[in-house]
Write a structure and sequence with these properties.
11 strands, alpha/beta, 7-stranded parallel β-sheet, 4-stranded mixed β-sheet, 439 residues, 17 helices, 2 domains
Length: 439
């Protein structure tokens, strides 16, 4: 790992390769264009708006993160996208219905310039969608080669120095690891054999890692977790991260659950339900895709509350998650949580949460932060799973055999301490010893 003055500079253009040009990607692209045109602020972006304390409190050093670590400049970003529909980013943004038309119109020239390549897609893995803008080939191996050709041409045409690929497309059907996932050789042979255990997201991840490009998985799909792709990331020294952007209801869980545990308040039940009307909601209306999302969302509470350590408080926790497709709501997801808690002497209490959020508005700054931070990791020569980016994921990946950390506040400490370590600053423990040091 390179540190401080050793870190490679963010010179040249950064290519951002977007798998899916739907609500999240168009909101992200429009936001970046608006910010660098001076039409908006990067609200929600940790990399752009958060500060980081350095040294003792008495030193009063709290620069913006973007001024502390050598992140890529937003003006240096170029976009490439793949999608199953041929509409450019302007038409796709209008269809997504996240942003006001007047705002989209103000960025029409920039959005029109982003036209998606044909996507790798199969209704075997996303059953509620079907598109005509899809690559054709004799094998999944050939599809991977087509993706790599798209990337090479983009890099040459736009004179790209570095790239990051992000899965911002739909949740695939639930898959479990298969023997063909165990090694790179067996994985590559399975692609040539069109094996059903090789999903489109795995093909994108393979193409990215094969070319030495960092990959972030914004959905709960099985891809980076399989041994073959983990091995490929290590061999090619590529940083990766996932999975599933942490936005609405799960964000609330990672804020509230740590507080309840910190005060040793018991939890008997946590019922969560959502209504969502965008393309993501339509996909999740399929039980097989919902199961993939459900596994991701259910894992959060169990890891935070640590039921094995606190059986008196959490052993009988009943956790239920529901997602309902409701077209009139569009991208404006609404979630309800009922939390049955237990206090002093066993007395029951309840917490009710009604979160009317905008899913893509929350996801777009997360995507920006992940792109910039994982590019930084690449320039620091960090590779494999980047656990320090757990702050941004619903179901954070870890090294094999380790439990993920889902407590948002521990995740934030890990994120900022990693940045301090990169720049050879002391990590902050919050012991508050300044007063005693002066005595």
């Amino acid at each position: 790992m390179l540190r401080a003055e050793e870190i490679k500079a963010a010179k040249g253009k950064l290519g951002v390769l977007l798998v899916g040009l739907g609500a999240v990607s168009t909101t992200f692209v429009a936001g970046v264009e608006a910010i660098r045109n001076g039409k908006a602020q990067a609200i929600g972006s940790v990399s752009q708006m958060a500060t980081i304390r350095l040294g003792k409190r008495t030193e009063n050093r709290s620069p913006l993160i973007k001024d502390f670590v050598p992140l890529a400049n937003l003006d240096d970003i170029e976009f490439l996208a793949w999608d199953i529909f041929a509409e450019d980013a302007y038409e796709a943004a209008l269809k997504a219905g996240v942003l006001e038309k007047t705002q989209i119109d103000s960025l029409e020239q920039e959005l029109r310039s982003l036209k998606p390549h044909k996507a790798v897609f199969s209704t075997d893995y996303v059953k509620k969608l079907d598109g005509t803008h899809v690559k054709k080939a004799d094998s999944k191996w050939d599809l991977a080669q087509q993706l790599m050709d798209d990337i090479r041409k983009f890099a040459e045409e736009k004179q790209i120095s570095r790239m990051v690929m992000a899965w911002a497309a739909s949740t695939e059907v639930y898959l479990e690891a298969d023997p063909v996932h165990w090694t790179i050789d067996s994985f590559e042979q399975a692609m040539k054999d069109n094996h059903p255990a090789i999903a489109p997201s795995m093909i994108y991840a393979y193409a990215s890692l094969k070319l030495g490009i960092p990959f972030v998985n914004g959905a709960p799909n099985l891809n980076l977790e399989i041994p073959a792709l983990r091995e490929l990331a290590v061999i090619n020294k590529v940083p990766v991260g996932g999975k599933d952007f942490k936005t609405g209801q799960t964000l609330m869980k990672t804020i509230i659950a740590p507080g309840l545990k910190a005060r040793m308040i018991g939890v008997n039940g946590w019922f969560s339900t959502n209504i969502l009307g965008n393309r993501d909601g339509e996909v999740l209306d399929d039980p097989e895709s919902f199961k993939t999302k459900e596994v991701s969302k259910l894992s959060v509470l169990e890891s935070i509350l640590e039921q094995d350590k606190y059986p008196e408080l959490y052993e009988d926790l009943y956790h239920k998650v529901r997602i309902n497709y409701y077209p009139p709501r569009g991208d404006n997801k609404e979630s309800w949580d009922n939390i049955d808690i237990v206090g002093w002497l066993g007395y029951p209490m309840q917490i009710k949460i009604n979160f009317l959020c905008r899913d893509s508005i929350l996801a777009a700054p997360v995507l920006l932060d992940l792109v910039l931070f994982i590019d930084l990791a690449q320039r620091c020569e960090m590779f494999g799973v980047q656990e320090w980016l757990s702050f941004f994921w619903k179901s954070p990946m870890t090294a094999p055999g380790l439990q993920p950390e889902n407590d948002l506040f521990i995740q934030q400490t890990k994120l900022k301490n990693t940045l301090r370590y990169m720049m050879k600053e002391d990590m902050i423990t919050h012991l508050g010893l300044e007063y005693y040091d002066q005595m």
